[in-house]
Design a protein that fits this description.
14% strand; acyl-CoA dehydrogenase activity; 8 strands; four-stranded mixed β-sheet; 3 domains; 12 helices; Butyryl-CoA Dehydrogenase, subunit A, domain 3; Butyryl-CoA Dehydrogenase, subunit A, domain 2; 51% helix; oxidoreductase
Length: 380
């Protein structure tokens, strides 16, 4: 019986993730050792219905809500952080239009959601390289825009179908606009560069994607917004995306904790026992911060305030997850230094939590300005 056969009977999304996770953990070290994208894992996720899990059931998807998607990612990340983070980058690109369809009545997103469900599309996010400021150039041509851009941190690019991205339409008078659109990754004007050789999360396939002359038709532009400042739609994006992404890091920290406990049980002493207790305390902090972010989403009121609270949660998740990982390494002792034990990989994977927006400096400025009643439109 294959791992997919094992999840063929009705189970929750998290239960399916736990079953798949055991197979993913068997593959995780080899992916890490060779900087190889988790293609086999993604094939299993695709076959098991994880790609369309966040699409509303009315549109042919799995109908999972955001807390279910978060738990799914946490569960997978206990076993393979790279697979979970790459899936999180797809999942938040599904959850955002699903939320807009359900809570804002935005019908324009329905065709995309139906395509994800029917075709099991993999969406690639470029938010890490674009964020609020946008990146790349949109050059006006007849009927649309020619795109010239390099998009970094493009997770799951090797198997991606559509890149959900943006570019800047330059205006010499200072009125630059960011255009949002999708680019087919199989376009002859798109190519990948093998740049993803990193400290951690080595199996995410987050290669650089070069867009060299692909033309986006005028009708393909889904959003225009002023460059370099927050827009109401981007407040939706930030509020929903960040908790989904950081669910993966909480799961990695949980996996590190479990691995450390196994190793620490070999020769427990008073010092080790205290380290394990401190580790679990830090992990509780990460879990509580993640739950706080999910609670913000549940309010269904994206705005500057929701961005502020989610980003404070993002900082706290990163802080506590990183601390838990450090304590896991120390509690496990010298055994943690061996790759075969899987703990140092998780420690390295956790370091990625430092780098997603908003990083510590902008986040603190945003929170401080909110507290003092100052403008935050250009803080990101």
């Amino acid at each position: 019986m294959t791992v997919l056969d094992a999840i063929s009977t009705p189970t929750t999304l998290a239960e399916k993730a736990k079953i798949l996770g055991s197979a993913f953990e068997d593959r995780a070290q080899a992916l890490d050792d060779t900087d190889t994208f988790a293609a086999e894992n993604f094939a299993d996720l695709k076959a098991a219905g994880f790609l369309e899990a966040g699409v509303p059931a009315e549109l042919g998807g799995g109908g999972a809500d955001i807390p279910e998607l978060s738990l799914m990612l946490r569960t997978l990340a206990r076993h393979c952080g790279s697979t979970a983070l790459a899936l999180a980058m797809h999942t938040h690109q599904v959850a955002i239009p699903a939320w807009r369809w359900r809570h804002q009545g935005v019908g324009a997103v329905e065709p995309l959601l139906r395509r994800i469900a029917a075709e099991k599309l993999v969406l690639v996010s470029t938010g890490g390289s674009d964020w609020v400021g946008g990146g790349g150039d949109a050059i006006p041509v007849e009927g649309g825009y020619r795109i010239q851009a390099r998009k970094v941190f493009s997770s799951s690019a090797p198997v991606g179908d559509l890149m959900m991205t943006m570019a800047v339409l330059r205006d010499g008078d200072g009125g630059d606009q960011v255009l949002h659109f999708a680019v087919p990754l199989r376009s002859p004007h798109v190519r990948l560069e093998d740049t993803w050789h990193t400290l951690g999360m080595r199996g995410t396939g987050s290669q650089d994607v070069l867009i060299d002359g692909h033309v986006v038709p005028e009708a393909g532009v889904s959003l225009r917004r002023p460059a370099g400042q927050w827009h109401p739609v981007f407040q939706v994006i930030a509020t929903i995306a960040v908790p989904i992404i950081y669910s993966a890091y909480v799961g990695v920290a949980e996996g590190a904790r479990d691995a450390a406990v196994v190793l620490a049980k070999r020769h427990p002493n008073a010092h080790t026992i205290a380290l394990v207790g401190r580790m679990d305390t830090e992990l509780m902090g990460a879990r509580l911060a993640l739950q706080g972010m999910l609670d913000v989403i549940a309010e269904n009121a994206p705005a500057a305030d929701s961005v502020n609270r989610v980003m404070m949660g993002r900082t706290l998740v990163a802080r506590h997850a990183l601390a838990a990982g450090e304590l896991a390494m120390e509690a496990a002792g010298g055994a943690a230094f061996y790759r075969r034990n899987g703990l140092e990989r998780r420690f390295r994977d956790l370091q990625g939590a430092r780098y997603h927006p908003m990083q510590a400096g902008p986040q603190a400025e945003y929170a401080g300005r909110m507290a003092l009643g100052m403008e935050v439109e250009r803080v990101y």
